[in-house]
Amino acid sequence: MSKIACHVLIVDDEEDILTAGRLLLKQHFASVKTTSDPYQIPTILAESSIDLVLLDMNYSAGATSSKEGLHWLKQIKQLDPNVTVILMTAYGDIELAVRALKEGATDFVLKPWRNDKLVAILKSACQQILDRAIVQAPKSNVPSTFHYGEFIGISPAMQRVYQTIDKVAATDANVLILGENGTGKEVAARALHQKSKRANKAFEKVDLGAISETLFESELFGHAKGAFTDAKEDRVGRMEAADGGTLFLDEIGNLSLALQAKLLSVLQNRQVIRLGTNKPRPIDIRLVCATNMPLYDMVKQGTFRQDLLYRINTVEIQLPPLRERKEDIKLLAEHFLQLYSKKYNREGLSMNAQTLRRLNAYYWPGNIRELDHAMERAIIMCDGTELHEEDFYFAPDTDSKPDQGNGEYTSGPVLSDGDHTLEALEKQMVQKVLVKHSGNITHAAKELGITRTALYRRIEKHGL
Ligand SMILES: Nc1ncnc2c1ncn2[C@@H]1O[C@H](COP(=O)(O)OP(=O)(O)OP(=O)(O)O)[C@@H](O)[C@H]1O
């Protein structure tokens, strides 16, 4: 029997259904893949050329609302509108199946299915795909990029982040975003705001790492004219400015204990008093905080207040480091390649497989921000039409270390063997911290425990 040139993916959390479906359909179609985990859908679509997805409507055991099926239908259509989706639904779900048809599904089959009926439905859908392919340009490969707001990434870890943002955006719950530098904490905070009912009100970002102790109160709570020497006029604080919208407190882990107490008191009372006044003003804000510091350890060490932590962490979002979601590196690199080749009039540039392998092997201590800068630099430095390894700057001693040949990478930056003079160690340490903070002098100086001027002196001394 000749097979139809159609590649099918079956998604269902029941292994029996997957096995039965695979055995039946592989007799009729070019290839049949299966997965019991719908979170794998984006990865499979990106890696294989799938034409048709046979998608179950219900996932968690006993669930019958079919909401998940609709969710994944939308995701598939967003990832690649050309992929045909056929839903599997239980008897009685017909109304929902009709809704799914409106949302872009091509057809549905009732479970338990009749083999001849299932094959007939899929064959008819595949024939439509093939007819379409003849009249249209050949079907492009599945899209190489997946956008969720400003985010790019298809890894299961990022899918979970998108799901959490979708779930909590509509609520007023306080959200704490954790993750290394450059992992996209601010992007996540903005996505939360944009998807919330506060989207048309202010999004106020305050970088707590950059505010001095003395300016904290006036910056956050505002002041009245004459409240202190430099207070030439009344000033609205950032909390009031965020009224009705979202207040994003970045680098909350950098706040001193004294300031933590002041912040906690305002959050508890939901009102601010401008410096130099005694009139409380109510504030209606949605609070989003972020940090790359280990807040839970800091609570144990007594450097972060537990009561403040519990006030800000109603929902937590952990952004994974780039090295733990290697499937996103290629997508992000291609995105930045497109962006910067346009910016520098170098359209047509490409990246060879070896360069991509090198990007995959690197530790990316500065995460996406570092990849962004690395791509921009490589595009500027590149002579020909292809980006090569030599066009990139990879900080020394920050490669991931292959683990006993299994291709996984385990350790982070290490100091090299060889020169162990204090001078050499200082140079390596300054270099390492600069890379970690993607060249941000303020942050690097803070981590090294020196002033910005002292850091500039060392950069010059070591020729960095
Ligand atoms: N998933 C992503 N897709 C595309 N761009 C991203 C993604 N995540 C982050 N970026 C980009 O990387 C850069 C760093 O992101 P962002 O400022 O949100 O990180 P961060 O975790 O807040 O960093 P820091 O801790 O240093 O403040 C930004 O230019 C942002 O647009």
From TrEMBL:
Q: Does the keyword Magnesium apply?
A: no
Alphabetized UniProt keyword annotations: ATP-binding, DNA-binding, Nucleotide-binding, Phosphoprotein, Transcription, Transcription regulation
Question: Which residues does this entry mark as bearing 4-aspartylphosphate?
Answer: D56
Matching entries from InterPro entries are given as:
AAA+_ATPase, AAA_lid_NorR, CheY-like_superfamily, Homeodomain-like_sf, HTH_Fis, P-loop_NTPase, Sig_transdc_resp-reg_receiver, Sigma_54_int
Which SMART domains does the UniProt record give?
AAA, REC
Query: Domain Sigma-54 factor interaction, which positions?
Result: 151-380
**Disordered: where is this region?**
397-417
How is this protein named in the record? Sigma-54 dependent transcriptional regulator
Q: Which organism encodes this protein?
A: Pontibacter populi
